[in-house]
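Two proteins follow. First one:
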Amino acid sequence: MDGSQFLVYPLKDSSFGAVVTDVKLSEIDDETFQALYTQWLEYALLIFPDQHLTNAEQIIFAKRFGDLEFDLAPITNVDKDGNVHFDPTEDRVKSIKGNMGWHTDSTYMPIQAKGAVFTAHTVPSTGGETGWADTQAAYEALSDDMKRKIRALKAYHSLWYSQSKLGHKPKVGEGYGFHEMEPPLRPIVKIHPETKRTMLTIGRHAYGIPEMGEKASEELLQELVDFTVQSPRVYHHTWQVGDAVVWDNRRLMHQGRPWDMKEPRIMYHARIAGSNDSEFAGHA
């Protein structure tokens, strides 16, 4: 299969994203992948309906994008014994609810993730969508005054910070991202290492701009998020079983959407590792 055989349909009324058909991800050759990768850099989010990837096939596909931060993790309210969890006091449920805030993956780690491959295995009857928001288009739409204001600013990023707002405070080492390292300090304005376009690094893990007081910092970061998630810079995907998506974590924020958690929702997430050269953050 060569790269000319798949079809790309840009999302209507959105600054990013495309649906890709006429391709089977479990069977693509290197030429086809390179053509898909070019489309991925252009659109940041590629949606592949009716793929029904196995876990092993998902990992193989994700590894085409580079080394993985982790191979595969279930994002689900269903445990290994098939029990459905919906009690809001449970850490499992608090973690899922945390993901409903706009965020960028692994900004709280020393090296931010490059991207992710996500698949739908069981979906609820309604709700449970995933949304993405385009921080490149957001930056480009900012006023000149705001661009000047944030140009040199940095913010800390912490999963402890974001989850503590939900009353979720695991012990050190109990879950990915809960560690004793100093929180990374990341520039709010970032240059994409491959496209060279300018975008924002913001979201629920960001806090504590050193040059500002706590209240002013929180207000500015929230203002940037609120601006980013306005049309046409946002898209929410209604999942069908078998869907696979890959998104550019350097450009897009994302969020889960609520659903009746008495219904099962089973998704699998493979996270693509960022480059030490471009996604590493220092400390204060």
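Second one, unrelated to the first:
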Amino acid sequence: MTFFLQLAITGLALGMMYALIAIGFVIIFKCSQAFNIAQGHFVMLGGYLGYTFLAVLHLPVWLSIIAVIAVAVVAGGVIERLALRPLVGQPVLAVIMMTIALAGVLEGIAILLWGGEYKTYHDVLPAITLNLGAISIPPESLIGLIVSTIVVTLLMLMFRYTKIGLAMRATAEDEQVTRGAGIRATMVYALAWIIAAVVGVVGGVLLGGVSGVSIAMSEIGLKALAVVILGGLDSIGGAIFAGLMLGIMENLAAGYLDPLMPSGGGLAGVFPFIVMILVLMIKPHGLFGLKRIERV
């Protein structure tokens, strides 16, 4: 039982980080009905920025998070203004193709600045460990759980109780009506991309502290996409629930199922996608997504 609880709690921390990254997918989809293929590359960029601020510049964790967020705000705003705003009103496929091109550009920047090499910064994180009886939460997972929970909570409060959040929800529901009400859709789109960049890079800093950083880290975007599809494409709450569920299941699969595999592992990496497929066979719109009915 102790081993099970250990895996479940560390999986909870991993799932909260998945949920944080998945929120970036949901926000962009709600505003443009397009998938942001570059979300995983924001995560990779955040990991390398975390390495730079924590291991190279030796900044405190809290200051590093602020610096990463500042870079993400600027990057998200510039990307939206130069690359995405000219595509407003264009087919969704054009936006998706632009995000694919953006993913290639971000990967090229990472290779140019950091050589695309594997980097770690475990030893520079605060050595805080939470012990719950016989269960111990390592520092990297604990910091990831705390920071991701704070960021997700602030985002939920913003969407629920602020005028900016109301404008974003209204634009996602019906852009034409919100334009008539005087809400600038371009402002909402810019804010959506800034938030997507921020949650991506913050998630990258946290995940980088757990597993290190490399170019392959961008593949985390596929897991976040699985989280979004499982929870519901237009549901932020669904992304949080699905992220927690998949994080716990992935850890349990790594602890109990991987040792049974002939190769000694590998199932945990694909387990989220197996769960996603099984759920979508029953509920194609996800656990909490809206079931849209079109009359012909």
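SUMMARY FIELD: The beta strands are 130-132, 135-137. The CA atoms of residues 45 and 224 lie 16 Å apart.
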